[in-house]
Amino acid sequence: MFQECGGKAAHLGELTSLRLNVPNGFCVVAGAFDHHLKRNNLERQIETIAKSIHFDEMQDLEEKTKNIRSLIEKADMPPDVEKEIVENYRTLSQDEEEPFVAIRSSVAIRDSQVSSFPGMMDTYHYIRGSQGVIESAKKCWASVWSARGAFARHNKGIDHSKAIIAPTVQLMVNSDIAGVLFTLNPVSGAREEIVIESNWGLGESVVSGRCICDFYSADKKEFRVKQKRIARKEQTFKQAERGGAEWVNVEPEKVEKPTLTEGQVEELCRIACKIEKHYGYPQDIEWAYEKGVPYILQARRAKAGDE
What we know:
The chain has about 300 residues and is α+β, with helices and mostly antiparallel strands. It has two domains: about 1-170, Dna Ligase, domain 1 (2-Layer Sandwich), CATH 3.30.1490.20; about 175-300, ATP-grasp fold, B domain (D-amino Acid Aminotransferase, Chain A, domain 1, 2-Layer Sandwich). Helix content is about 35%, strand content about 25%. The strands form four sheets. Strands 10-9-8-7-13-14 form a six-stranded antiparallel sheet. The chain has a four-stranded antiparallel sheet with strand order 1-6-2-4.
């Protein structure tokens, strides 16, 4: 499954089978990207540029990966792939033919167990309309050649041609609160703890590391809050009037207000433990609340700070 859909989409499919609240969506499988490269005769061009990159010179790395991304984005998507994406997009919602969606990059490495490169590929929020979905899917494909992604593969000795990218298209969760949860303490490695970080708006404000967020630590057996630190949350990431999402100031009355109730902490802990039990190892989970309803946006293996 990883080899077709990448780690993110494969895990989301499993979470759906657990009857968890995962936003409705679909995956543009890895073969579609390969088809896009072949049909537009991009493989040799990309290989030539990639071989010329000086990975110890940041400017050279940035410029040449940007050139590769431009080739991928400007090329016409194969008509059969475009047709299938549009058809799937228009059936995502029973209420709207062209709903808002989030488009995320799901990745893996061929012939290996690597199924994530956290924070190195692109995500697009509040995309609406078939053309916007097509363009964002191409941008996701192109983001496999982000400077950070290319550098990470180079450092790990991974052949760039083995990179798999399979964009996921999901109904947008217009979250009031979002964040991350670890079913272990990511610093100490203690497995009897659950750690949660949260902020108002979309989870980007938490996963990007740009904002100081609320912190909760709970006992894994009783889901009791052991420790909490309520931060001054001065910025958040939310829907922009002109489309997409943007950084904005938090409303003054919410700056020092806790994002989560103890009931919500307990609810997230119960969901997280169900996910951990399914996989059999600690989880790093992205979640969101919209109008009091919890959604699971991603789950992957969690690592402690010393791993």
